[in-house]
Amino acid sequence: MKPIVAKFGGSSLADAAQFRKVADIVRADADRRFVVASAPGKRNAADTKVTDLLYRCYELATQGQDAAPALALIRARFAQIMDELSIDFPLDEELGVIAAQLAAAPARDYMASRGEYLNAKLLAAYLGVPFVDAANTVRFSGDGRFIAEGTNEALATALRGVERAVIPGFYGADEAGRIHTFTRGGSDVTGALVARAVNARLYENWTDVSGMLFTDPRIVPNPDTIRHISYRELRELSYMGASVLHEDAVFPARAAGIPINIRNTNRPADAGTMISHDLPPAAAQRPVTGVAGRKGFSTLLVEQSLMNNEIGFGARLLNILAAHGVPFEHCPTGIDTISVVVDTAALDACREAVLRQIELQMHPDHLSVEDGLAMIAVVGHGMGGQRGIAARIFSAVAEAGVNIRMIDQGSSELNIIIGVDEADYEAAVRAICEKLRK
Ligand code: ADP
Ligand code: ASP
Ligand code: MG
């Protein structure tokens, strides 16, 4: 039987009680041979994730301030788990290495990765399963780019013939052994990489909700659980902000045709969400699968009379953004105007230089930037075959008194995306979900 890879998120491994639940889940199915662990997350709403404490240590150290109190908080998190579960583990020795590294040559990604490293070591000791370090298997280039094929080969080689293993999520290393991390939430990606490398029959992603929900539960109370969803729908929703699964976790699983099952560590009997290529007929026909969104976008608006006659105008604008490393999200155009929606944080890194280059290279009649845009995506395979979905979305938003600042229908008819003011974001999501449910 092919194995199952089980990734447990931060809240699933936040304290000793959660470790016990994880052990019960792992032991309940002998096929759960490969376990990927996150760092301890929040134990309650007011708590701090160990990863955030580690970033704080790095910031303090680089500002010449004392990181010892933050390190002590981290120590207390792991010590509590160790002591309550009577795990024999050289915690102070391991923390000594980390503190020495922090003092000698602070490195941000190395520091951030130590939550996963220590937690996976603890979990491995608790389960009595070997620890396999991601530093030797998950490959990055020296400048921090993830190397997909090299990683797949290294992971497959390291895990060939291995009966069981616990692998830390979130990080890997370059050839020189320097640690690099994925973006936040990246343990989901590691889980998918391990699943691909061991040719798993299933990638289980264990978290604190019983699957992917129709929308963000922090905005709409008790949304329905999506029982089946395609990789493409999931990718759209997670890219747009449905943060339950890291957007890049879809690719390795999809490439290998491995279904992903999102499950709840606190309610292991719930079936959760199944993500695969093929959907059961009812799921394939439903017009809308989910609604997601996020804040933090800006619109660059460029006006130029007779722009439509000038070949390459749009390309030049996008080239300027590309040259500054700013990816574009959407690009709605008019006859004499072109606007580009970008991530505000990405633009902020080079805002003045980008605007100067646009002025210099394009001499527009008008150039402006509007910040404070939120984007909402309504996603579903069945949308293309059903009339009136767009009308219902727009009327819902209008009835909520919200002004739509941008509309984009993806070329695949898999989504409709609207832009609204950040202040209107939650109200618009609520109105859309309410209308679509009727
Ligand atoms: P983990 O630490 O297990 O990786 P995350 O915090 O990364 O868990 O992801 C789970 C959280 O994602 C949920 O607790 C929920 O608040 C949030 N979330 C946002 N949008 C959705 C959605 N559409 N469906 C389910 N959860 C969502
Ligand atoms: N611990 C990391 C984070 O908080 C990675 C993860 O949880 O997936 O982002
Ligand atoms: Mg996560």
Could you characterize the architecture of this molecule?
The model has no long low-confidence stretch (mean pLDDT 94). The chain starts with a strand and ends with a helix. The strands form three sheets. It has a seven-stranded mixed β-sheet, with helices on both faces. A six-stranded antiparallel β-sheet has the order 11-12-10-13-15-14. The longest helix has 20 residues, at 108-127. It has helices at residues 16-28, 50-62, 68-85, 91-104, 108-127, 148-159, 187-197, 231-239, 250-256, 281-285, 313-323, 344-348, 351-362, 389-399, 425-437; strands at 4-8, 32-37, 165-168, 171-173, 179-181, 202-207, 228-230, 260-264, 273-276, 290-303, 328-330, 337-343, 366-379, 404-409, 415-421. It is globular and about 70 Å long. It has 15 helices and 15 strands. Helix 1 crosses helix 3 (68-85), helix 2 packs antiparallel against helix 5 (108-127) and helix 6 (148-159) crosses helix 7. It folds into two domains: 4-279, 3-Layer(aba) Sandwich (Carbamate kinase); 290-437, 2-Layer Sandwich (VC0802-like), CATH 3.30.2130. With 438 residues, the protein is α/β, with parallel strands linked by helices.
